[in-house]
Design a protein that fits this description.
two-stranded parallel sheet, single chain, alpha/beta
Length: 298
């Protein structure tokens, strides 16, 4: 049984990885509550001493607004800590899997972004994540960097959870019409990355997402339709469209198009992809419906 250490195990992606790999691998996990990721001496000691063969970094400062408010913290978390991980893993022959983001792109391309496309982040979040990527890939440790987009999973509420929560309370649900990407199931990511661990590939940069793309408005529409089919008592399945500029709650810059091309990964590893709609349907039925039932039963 392969030994895997998941860093960031209480986050949306990390919690899903730990749950999905239980019994398949010998999984150890740490979260922000276990120790301060920015204690670089402690982080390095942990990675040098762990017996894990694979280290999976699902941690990071992911709030775009928080990154703009405290750029120093963003770079310490998303760049410097990642560099420590890559270096320590290389020293001991461990393999590092690091997750990055579609927000390394500026959104100006009129098609899906491939791994070879130049990255020009708009904000501090994307810039700090890009620097972290570069440290991992430059470490020559046969590590992997996976850029992912619009991840939904069990660890922390995501867009579908928020849309359904709003629709349980009101008919007035809004979503952005002029921003596009690919929703991605954290459970699917767990399966795809498991194939990487099993194949023991040579490392590199890859894009991961479910197939297809949509706007936030289309994402919200499909979420509410899934909820209705699942018997969740939403008050609407027709969210109102607004522009990104009208959404005053978001102050940090965001790329309008960050759809990821995934051909490189799915042509190189023996796994299948599925549409984001199918993945979303499963998530709503398996997880959101159960959570809503617990709330309404109180």
């Amino acid at each position: 049984m392969k030994r895997v250490l998941v860093i960031g195990s209480k986050g949306r992606l990390g919690a899903t990885l730990v749950a999905a790999w239980a019994g398949k691998y010998s999984v150890a996990s740490i979260s922000r509550g276990d120790f301060d990721l920015l204690r670089f001496d402690v982080l390095e000691k942990l990675l040098l001493e762990t017996d894990a063969e694979w280290v999976v970094n699902a941690s990071g400062l992911t709030s775009l607004e928080a990154c703009e408010e405290d750029p120093q913290l963003a770079y310490l978390t998303n760049k410097e800590a990642v560099g420590i991980m890559a270096s320590a893993c290389k020293k001991t022959g461990k393999r590092l899997i690091h997750f990055s983001t579609d927000y390394v792109f500026d959104g100006e391309k009129g098609a899906a972004y491939g791994e070879e496309d130049p990255a020009f982040p708009l904000g501090t979040y994307g810039k700090s994540k890009l620097e972290g990527e570069r440290l991992v890939l430059a470490s020559e440790g046969k590590h992997f960097v996976f850029r992912v987009s619009w991840v939904f999973g069990i660890g922390r509420p995501a867009f579908p959870d928020a849309v359904i929560r709003n629709a349980l309370e009101s008919e007035n649900v809004r979503a952005v019409t002029d921003k596009w990407s690919s929703p991605t199931s954290a459970e699917d990511i767990a399966g795809w990355v498991s194939a990487v661990i099993e194949k023991n590939g040579t490392g590199g940069l890859y894009h991961l997402s479910n197939s297809g793309a949509c706007s936030w408005l289309e994402y919200a529409e499909c979420t509410l339709e899934s909820a209705k089919r699942a018997g969740i008592p939403v008050k609407t399945t027709a969210p109102q469209g607004i522009s990104l500029s009208e959404l005053g709650t978001l102050s940090a810059p965001r790329p309008k198009n960050s759809v990821l091309a995934t051909d490189k990964f799915f042509s190189g590893f023996p796994v299948r992809n599925r549409s984001w709609q199918d993945a979303l349907d499963e998530y709503v039925v398996k997880h959101v419906k159960r959570a809503v039932s617990k709330i309404t039963a109180r």
